[in-house]
Amino acid sequence: MIDVIHNPVAGPKVVNRIDRVRAYLSARGLPFRIRETAAPGDAVVMAREAALEGADAVVAVGGDGTMNEAADGLAGSATRLAFVPHGTGNVFAREFSLPESVEGCLDLLSSGKTISIRMAKANDRRFVLLASAGFDAEVVERMTSRQKNLLGIAAYVLCGAQHLLRSQPTLWLEFPGRDRVEAQAVLVVRGKKYGGNVTIAPGGDIAGETFQVIALLRKGRWSIAKFALDALRGKHTSSRHVLVRESPSLFVRSSIPSACQIDGEYLGPLPVRFTVTDALLRVVVPKEFPSPPA
Protein backbone atom coordinates (compact mmCIF):
# COMPACT_ATOMS: atom_id res chain seq x y z
CA MET A 1 0.00 0.00 0.00
CA ILE A 2 1.15 3.52 -0.81
CA ASP A 3 -0.26 6.43 1.17
CA VAL A 4 -0.27 9.81 -0.60
CA ILE A 5 -0.41 12.76 1.77
CA HIS A 6 -0.79 16.25 0.36
CA ASN A 7 -1.19 19.79 1.58
CA PRO A 8 -3.97 21.61 -0.33
CA VAL A 9 -2.52 25.04 0.53
CA ALA A 10 0.96 24.26 -0.85
CA GLY A 11 0.12 26.20 -4.00
CA PRO A 12 -2.68 26.65 -6.56
CA LYS A 13 -1.33 23.95 -8.88
CA VAL A 14 -1.11 21.19 -6.28
CA VAL A 15 -4.41 19.69 -7.54
CA ASN A 16 -2.78 19.06 -10.91
CA ARG A 17 0.07 17.25 -9.19
CA ILE A 18 -2.32 15.07 -7.22
CA ASP A 19 -4.16 14.19 -10.44
CA ARG A 20 -0.84 13.14 -11.99
CA VAL A 21 0.05 11.07 -8.93
CA ARG A 22 -3.34 9.34 -9.10
CA ALA A 23 -2.97 8.64 -12.83
CA TYR A 24 0.58 7.28 -12.39
CA LEU A 25 -0.26 4.87 -9.56
CA SER A 26 -3.54 3.74 -11.18
CA ALA A 27 -1.84 3.00 -14.52
CA ARG A 28 0.59 0.67 -12.75
CA GLY A 29 -2.07 -1.09 -10.69
CA LEU A 30 -0.48 -0.05 -7.40
CA PRO A 31 -2.74 0.03 -4.32
CA PHE A 32 -2.91 3.53 -2.86
CA ARG A 33 -5.03 6.02 -1.01
CA ILE A 34 -4.89 9.82 -1.09
CA ARG A 35 -5.27 11.82 2.11
CA GLU A 36 -5.54 15.60 2.41
CA THR A 37 -4.27 17.54 5.41
CA ALA A 38 -6.55 20.12 7.01
CA ALA A 39 -4.44 21.48 9.87
CA PRO A 40 -0.86 21.58 11.15
CA GLY A 41 0.19 18.19 12.50
CA ASP A 42 -2.21 16.19 10.29
CA ALA A 43 0.58 14.81 8.11
CA VAL A 44 2.43 13.56 11.22
CA VAL A 45 -0.62 11.58 12.33
CA MET A 46 -1.41 10.30 8.82
CA ALA A 47 2.16 9.14 8.21
CA ARG A 48 2.31 7.44 11.61
CA GLU A 49 -0.94 5.62 10.86
CA ALA A 50 0.43 4.50 7.50
CA ALA A 51 3.55 3.10 9.18
CA LEU A 52 1.51 1.27 11.82
CA GLU A 53 -0.63 -0.24 9.05
CA GLY A 54 2.50 -1.53 7.30
CA ALA A 55 2.44 0.76 4.25
CA ASP A 56 5.38 0.28 1.89
CA ALA A 57 5.74 4.02 1.30
CA VAL A 58 4.29 7.42 2.04
CA VAL A 59 4.38 9.89 -0.84
CA ALA A 60 4.33 13.45 0.52
CA VAL A 61 3.15 16.08 -1.99
CA GLY A 62 3.71 19.68 -0.99
CA GLY A 63 6.45 21.86 0.42
CA ASP A 64 9.21 21.19 2.91
CA GLY A 65 6.72 21.66 5.76
CA THR A 66 4.59 18.76 4.52
CA MET A 67 7.76 16.70 4.07
CA ASN A 68 8.83 17.54 7.63
CA GLU A 69 5.57 16.36 9.15
CA ALA A 70 5.48 13.14 7.11
CA ALA A 71 9.10 12.42 8.08
CA ASP A 72 8.29 13.02 11.76
CA GLY A 73 5.48 10.47 11.56
CA LEU A 74 7.68 7.88 9.82
CA ALA A 75 10.79 8.25 11.98
CA GLY A 76 11.93 4.88 13.31
CA SER A 77 9.58 2.88 11.06
CA ALA A 78 10.20 0.64 8.05
CA THR A 79 7.90 2.69 5.80
CA ARG A 80 9.74 4.66 3.12
CA LEU A 81 9.29 8.38 2.44
CA ALA A 82 9.04 9.56 -1.18
CA PHE A 83 8.56 13.23 -1.98
CA VAL A 84 6.88 15.13 -4.82
CA PRO A 85 7.87 18.77 -4.24
CA HIS A 86 5.42 21.60 -4.65
CA GLY A 87 6.34 24.41 -2.30
CA THR A 88 8.39 27.57 -1.94
CA GLY A 89 11.91 26.51 -1.02
CA ASN A 90 11.89 22.79 -1.91
CA VAL A 91 15.20 22.31 -0.11
CA PHE A 92 14.51 18.57 0.32
CA ALA A 93 14.23 18.07 -3.45
CA ARG A 94 17.53 19.85 -4.08
CA GLU A 95 19.34 18.17 -1.19
CA PHE A 96 18.50 14.71 -2.54
CA SER A 97 18.72 15.63 -6.26
CA LEU A 98 15.11 14.62 -6.94
CA PRO A 99 13.73 14.77 -10.51
CA GLU A 100 11.72 17.86 -11.48
CA SER A 101 8.65 16.00 -12.74
CA VAL A 102 5.94 14.26 -10.72
CA GLU A 103 6.44 11.08 -12.72
CA GLY A 104 10.21 11.20 -12.25
CA CYS A 105 9.81 11.38 -8.46
CA LEU A 106 7.36 8.48 -8.46
CA ASP A 107 9.63 6.39 -10.72
CA LEU A 108 12.11 6.37 -7.83
CA LEU A 109 9.79 4.06 -5.89
CA SER A 110 10.93 1.28 -8.24
CA SER A 111 14.06 2.59 -9.99
CA GLY A 112 15.68 4.50 -7.12
CA LYS A 113 17.13 3.31 -3.83
CA THR A 114 16.30 3.74 -0.16
CA ILE A 115 18.78 5.21 2.31
CA SER A 116 18.49 5.73 6.06
CA ILE A 117 19.34 9.07 7.63
CA ARG A 118 19.20 10.31 11.21
CA MET A 119 16.47 12.74 12.21
CA ALA A 120 17.42 15.87 14.15
CA LYS A 121 15.48 17.57 16.94
CA ALA A 122 14.75 21.14 17.97
CA ASN A 123 13.57 20.74 21.57
CA ASP A 124 10.93 18.01 21.14
CA ARG A 125 10.21 18.54 17.42
CA ARG A 126 11.98 16.46 14.78
CA PHE A 127 13.36 17.88 11.54
CA VAL A 128 15.27 16.59 8.52
CA LEU A 129 17.22 19.32 6.75
CA LEU A 130 17.90 22.54 8.59
CA ALA A 131 16.82 24.94 11.28
CA SER A 132 17.63 28.52 12.19
CA ALA A 133 17.29 31.08 14.96
CA GLY A 134 17.28 34.84 14.78
CA PHE A 135 16.71 36.82 11.59
CA ASP A 136 15.98 33.94 9.20
CA ALA A 137 13.50 32.32 11.59
CA GLU A 138 11.75 35.62 12.30
CA VAL A 139 11.22 36.15 8.56
CA VAL A 140 9.74 32.65 8.25
CA GLU A 141 7.45 33.41 11.21
CA ARG A 142 6.06 36.46 9.42
CA MET A 143 5.48 34.86 6.01
CA THR A 144 1.94 33.78 5.18
CA SER A 145 0.78 30.89 2.99
CA ARG A 146 -0.81 33.43 0.64
CA GLN A 147 2.50 35.26 0.20
CA LYS A 148 4.37 32.02 -0.48
CA ASN A 149 1.78 30.81 -3.00
CA LEU A 150 1.67 34.12 -4.89
CA LEU A 151 5.35 35.09 -4.81
CA GLY A 152 7.30 31.89 -4.21
CA ILE A 153 10.84 32.46 -2.98
CA ALA A 154 10.35 36.20 -3.63
CA ALA A 155 8.06 36.24 -0.57
CA TYR A 156 11.08 35.50 1.62
CA VAL A 157 13.09 38.28 -0.04
CA LEU A 158 10.26 40.78 0.44
CA CYS A 159 9.62 39.85 4.08
CA GLY A 160 13.35 39.80 4.73
CA ALA A 161 13.83 43.30 3.34
CA GLN A 162 11.00 44.60 5.52
CA HIS A 163 12.35 42.82 8.59
CA LEU A 164 15.79 44.39 8.17
CA LEU A 165 14.26 47.63 9.46
CA ARG A 166 13.47 46.04 12.83
CA SER A 167 15.78 45.72 15.81
CA GLN A 168 17.72 42.45 15.67
CA PRO A 169 18.26 40.34 18.81
CA THR A 170 21.59 39.10 20.12
CA LEU A 171 21.86 35.31 20.28
CA TRP A 172 24.02 33.23 22.59
CA LEU A 173 25.16 29.89 21.17
CA GLU A 174 26.31 27.19 23.57
CA PHE A 175 28.31 24.30 22.12
CA PRO A 176 29.21 21.05 23.90
CA GLY A 177 31.90 21.68 26.49
CA ARG A 178 30.26 24.98 27.54
CA ASP A 179 31.91 26.91 24.70
CA ARG A 180 29.77 30.05 24.21
CA VAL A 181 29.57 32.35 21.19
CA GLU A 182 27.65 35.59 20.70
CA ALA A 183 25.98 35.96 17.30
CA GLN A 184 23.25 37.78 15.41
CA ALA A 185 21.82 34.80 13.51
CA VAL A 186 22.51 31.08 13.19
CA LEU A 187 21.70 28.26 10.77
CA VAL A 188 21.85 24.65 11.96
CA VAL A 189 22.21 22.46 8.88
CA ARG A 190 22.20 18.69 8.39
CA GLY A 191 22.92 18.69 4.65
CA LYS A 192 24.31 21.30 2.29
CA LYS A 193 21.36 23.16 0.79
CA TYR A 194 19.20 26.16 1.68
CA GLY A 195 16.24 27.79 -0.08
CA GLY A 196 16.80 29.06 -3.60
CA ASN A 197 19.27 26.23 -4.24
CA VAL A 198 21.95 28.00 -2.18
CA THR A 199 24.75 25.76 -0.89
CA ILE A 200 24.83 27.12 2.65
CA ALA A 201 26.99 24.38 4.24
CA PRO A 202 29.55 22.99 1.77
CA GLY A 203 30.81 20.55 4.41
CA GLY A 204 27.35 19.26 5.34
CA ASP A 205 26.55 15.55 5.26
CA ILE A 206 22.87 14.61 5.49
CA ALA A 207 23.86 11.02 6.28
CA GLY A 208 26.24 12.03 9.08
CA GLU A 209 25.78 12.35 12.83
CA THR A 210 26.47 16.09 13.27
CA PHE A 211 25.31 19.55 12.23
CA GLN A 212 27.08 22.26 10.34
CA VAL A 213 26.55 25.42 12.41
CA ILE A 214 26.74 28.64 10.36
CA ALA A 215 26.67 31.72 12.62
CA LEU A 216 26.79 35.39 11.67
CA LEU A 217 28.94 37.03 14.34
CA ARG A 218 28.89 40.65 13.22
CA LYS A 219 25.96 42.80 14.39
CA GLY A 220 23.84 45.21 12.35
CA ARG A 221 21.25 45.00 9.60
CA TRP A 222 23.80 45.58 6.84
CA SER A 223 25.81 42.62 8.09
CA ILE A 224 22.74 40.46 7.47
CA ALA A 225 22.33 41.89 3.96
CA LYS A 226 26.01 41.24 3.16
CA PHE A 227 25.79 37.71 4.54
CA ALA A 228 22.81 37.01 2.27
CA LEU A 229 24.62 38.36 -0.81
CA ASP A 230 27.77 36.40 0.05
CA ALA A 231 25.70 33.22 0.49
CA LEU A 232 24.16 33.65 -2.95
CA ARG A 233 27.70 33.89 -4.38
CA GLY A 234 29.00 30.99 -2.29
CA LYS A 235 31.48 33.22 -0.42
CA HIS A 236 29.92 33.45 3.04
CA THR A 237 32.02 30.71 4.65
CA SER A 238 35.26 32.61 3.92
CA SER A 239 34.16 35.73 5.85
CA ARG A 240 35.89 36.42 9.17
CA HIS A 241 32.49 37.48 10.49
CA VAL A 242 30.98 34.02 9.89
CA LEU A 243 31.61 31.04 12.16
CA VAL A 244 31.39 27.57 10.59
CA ARG A 245 31.61 24.69 13.04
CA GLU A 246 30.66 21.03 13.09
CA SER A 247 28.81 19.98 16.23
CA PRO A 248 26.53 17.17 17.47
CA SER A 249 24.35 19.64 19.40
CA LEU A 250 23.73 23.33 20.06
CA PHE A 251 21.76 25.39 22.57
CA VAL A 252 20.51 28.84 21.49
CA ARG A 253 18.96 31.61 23.58
CA SER A 254 18.40 35.30 22.95
CA SER A 255 18.58 38.64 24.76
CA ILE A 256 15.10 39.65 23.60
CA PRO A 257 12.31 37.42 22.21
CA SER A 258 13.31 35.73 18.96
CA ALA A 259 12.20 32.79 16.86
CA CYS A 260 13.21 29.32 15.64
CA GLN A 261 12.21 27.61 12.40
CA ILE A 262 12.70 24.01 11.22
CA ASP A 263 12.56 22.86 7.60
CA GLY A 264 11.08 26.20 6.58
CA GLU A 265 8.25 26.24 9.13
CA TYR A 266 7.98 28.39 12.26
CA LEU A 267 8.59 26.31 15.39
CA GLY A 268 8.28 28.81 18.26
CA PRO A 269 10.27 31.18 20.45
CA LEU A 270 13.76 30.64 21.82
CA PRO A 271 15.44 29.07 23.72
CA VAL A 272 15.95 25.88 21.72
CA ARG A 273 18.28 22.90 21.93
CA PHE A 274 19.30 21.19 18.68
CA THR A 275 20.39 17.54 18.71
CA VAL A 276 20.91 14.71 16.23
CA THR A 277 18.83 11.69 17.24
CA ASP A 278 19.13 7.94 16.73
CA ALA A 279 15.72 7.79 15.02
CA LEU A 280 16.20 6.76 11.38
CA LEU A 281 14.16 7.89 8.39
CA ARG A 282 14.08 5.75 5.23
CA VAL A 283 14.17 8.07 2.21
CA VAL A 284 13.65 7.21 -1.48
CA VAL A 285 16.40 8.84 -3.57
CA PRO A 286 17.94 8.48 -7.05
CA LYS A 287 20.41 5.62 -7.50
CA GLU A 288 23.15 8.16 -8.17
CA PHE A 289 22.78 9.75 -4.73
CA PRO A 290 25.76 8.81 -2.49
CA SER A 291 24.92 6.04 -0.04
CA PRO A 292 25.76 6.52 3.66
CA PRO A 293 28.77 4.53 4.85
CA ALA A 294 27.89 1.10 6.20
Explain this structure.
Helix 2 (42-52) runs parallel beside helix 3 (64-74). It contains 9 helices and 18 strands. It is 30% helix and 34% strand. It has 2 domains: 2-111, Probable inorganic polyphosphate/atp-NAD kinase, domain 1 (Rossmann fold, 3-Layer(aba) Sandwich); 125-277, Tumour Suppressor Smad4, CATH 2.60.200. It is α+β, with helices and mostly antiparallel strands and 294 residues long. The model has no long low-confidence stretch (mean pLDDT 90). The strands form 4 sheets. Strands 6-5-18-15-8-9 form a 6-stranded antiparallel β-sheet. The chain has a 6-stranded antiparallel β-sheet with strand order 14-13-10-7-16-17.
Give a short synopsis of this structure.
By secondary structure, the chain is an alpha+beta fold.
What would you call the structural class?
alpha+beta
Mean pLDDT: 90
* Low-confidence region ranges: none
How many separate domains? 2
Strand order of the largest sheet: 6-5-18-15-8-9
Looking at the structure, the CATH topology of the largest domain is: Tumour Suppressor Smad4
Indicate the overall shape: globular
Sketch the topology as an H/E string, one letter per element. Answer: EHEHEHEHHEEEHHHEEEEEEHEEEEE
Task: Give the % helix.
Answer: 25-40%
Rg on CA atoms, Å: 19 Å
Annotated CATH architecture of the largest domain: Sandwich
Q: What is the top-level CATH class of the largest domain?
A: Mainly Beta
**E-strand count:** 18
- Percentage of β-strand residues: 25-35%
Q: How does the major sheet shape up? A: 6 strands, antiparallel
